């Protein structure tokens, strides 16, 4: 596996740059370049009289909420531009958060005429029913999850839905925004999505080192998903082997025997 630079929160670098500029008395001091893209953020509320709108606006500052979510996503899925590693993130130009009467919790789309403009729709009814002591954390968690969908790669539309949703919940987990009902488990298959896959990706990040999920996202950029080649190219093992090892190490359980210790022959570049 390629050596990966340790993950450094974007906020730390932004704060350091700000402090340096404040301490510089020279009017000609250059302004620090933004570390990541700075898209336009918008908020649209379908019904200001709705209880969900009132609760949302009293719990988070929309601009800061969206900015923080974006910084977390980019710091976990991409290298900083100053790291010396060349990354290419999607050219998102705007993100609009819409508080609306929609089914479920939230979902993300792109404008039909221009996919560089993303729309996150958040259910007003869902916001209305969040427990008060969890409100701010849950809102930040849901928005962070949806923000991942604005920026992640998807293997030209061929990546498994479980992997796409798992990456989103991996970011939410790493941002310390996991809700209390989440739990790590080794039942079923690796690609059942959401926190189930998110915890598996978290194990890969711990097992193979910081930046492992960055590499997964990177490999989803320019080619279609082929499961037999995708995982061995990154980790040297088939995903079925990784899943068995995850279950063995995290839950002391295996299915179908022990995991091979040797990497799959001929499948590691």
Task: Kindly summarize this structure in a few lines.
With 269 residues, this protein is an alpha/beta fold.
Structure description:
The protein is of the alpha/beta class. 45% of the residues lie in helices and 11% in strands. The chain has ten helices and four strands; from the N terminus they run H-E-H-H-E-E-E-H-H-H-H-H-H-H. It has helices at residues 10-23, 51-59, 62-77, 124-128, 135-151, 161-174, 194-208, 212-219, 227-235, 239-251; strands at residues 40-45, 94-100, 106-111, 114-123. The protein has a four-stranded mixed sheet. Helix 5 crosses helix 6 (161-174) and helix 6 crosses helix 7 (194-208). It is globular.
Features:
single chain, 269 residues, alpha/beta, 4-stranded mixed β-sheet, 10 helices, 4 strands, disordered N terminus, disordered C terminus
Give a topology summary.
Elements: H1 10-23, E1 40-45, H2 51-59, H3 62-77, E2 94-100, E3 106-111, E4 114-123, H4 124-128, H5 135-151, H6 161-174, H7 194-208, H8 212-219, H9 227-235, H10 239-251
Helix pairs in contact: 3-5, 5-6, 6-7
How much helix is in the residues? Answer: 40-55%
Structural class: alpha/beta
State the total count of DSSP E strands: 4
Low-pLDDT segments? 1-29, 256-269
Strand order of the largest sheet: 1-2-4-3
The biggest beta sheet, please?
4 strands, mixed
Number of helices: 10
